[in-house]
Write a structure and sequence with these properties.
The chain has about 170 residues and is mainly α. It has seven helices and no strands.
């Protein structure tokens, strides 16, 4: 291999590792921001009703994202406005469920229940799209839902309403 080819290969791998490090840093930052948001929601709900907190979170989000979308000339409705509206309705419902859970449960529990979406995506992909479930995936889903069951801790027929609503935020 020539010196030029080796140099190009090194540049590609170092660029790839830089992008990976950048991606990891952004994931950590995002996780930190969600934790801070959970804390602010928890503190806000000591004095404000849940729907007011949801409204202000959505208003701040709209104030930040709308100018950016308009500047980049990104359509607010997309190519399929009906699906965008449906996603917005489900997203709003999940946000309300998550904020309710944050107000009623410890922050770590509420955030963990909200992060169960990966379990539900795999389950719904099988049910709705007919995707194949391997034994390994089935084992992982079973372990994941068993962990959720341990977190919710239902007592002999009495359900923990806040935990179930928090779980709905993951769906």
């Amino acid at each position: 291999m020539s010196a030029y080819a080796m140099s190009c290969q090194e540049n590609r791998s170092s660029g790839s590792s830089q992008r990976l490090a950048h991606g990891i840093a952004l994931m950590v930052l995002g996780t930190f921001c969600f934790a801070v948001m959970g804390l602010w929601v928890k503190l806000s709900m000591l004095k404000l009703p849940e729907m007011e907190v949801v409204f202000f979170r959505c208003a701040v989000n709209a104030l930040i994202l709308t100018p950016y979308l308009l500047w980049r000339r990104i359509s607010l409705t997309g190519r399929r406005p009906g699906l965008v509206m449906l996603r917005g309705i489900f997203g709003f419902g999940a946000l309300c469920c998550n904020f309710y859970a944050l107000g009623q449960l410890p922050i770590a529990t509420a955030n963990l229940l909200n992060q169960t979406s990966a379990l539900f995506v795999a389950l719904f992909a099988f049910i709705l799209l007919g995707e194949r479930i391997t034994p390994r995936l089935l084992l992982c889903l079973g372990m994941g839902f068993a962990g959720v069951w341990l977190i919710i801790k239902p007592d002999a027929g009495v359900s923990n309403q806040a935990a179930l609503i928090g779980l709905m935020s993951g769906v």
